[in-house]
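seq:
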Amino acid sequence: MLRWLVSIMVLLQPAYGWTEVEKDTWIDLNFSSSSLQVKTDNPSSGSMLIVKFATSTNTDERMLRITFGDAATTYIILPCMSAENSFDELPSDTTKIWTFKKITSSLKITCNGVQLINYAFMTDGSACAVRWITDDFSRFKFSGADSASDGYNIASCESV
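struct:
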């Protein structure tokens, strides 16, 4: 039921409801009260959704990449993962709304209302922990290599 409702909401979303993606441009985002939503509309095989995150004072970027494929869609969270992983189940809708929410110790990824990942960051002092847990991100940007993102929204936590 929820998947159906989200699919209807995606189809009814007015074109002006999405902000056009500008690559390599920092955009302010308060992750403690907001999440990032990215719209992809039937991305071709090999295309990538690439978002980078940073604090206002630190240029050290963290990256999330989703690669679309015919057989599988994969993701990698850098520097936490050394290889790409496949999503177990991905909604079959052509238009997808990806929601990224970072809380203190994890990154949640949903697609069309279905939670796909709740990636828990290790608290062992590793590069992953140091770069994802200790910082409060205040901005993001789409990589110049991003070829799948069609638009984005910044949503309040209450609406996701």
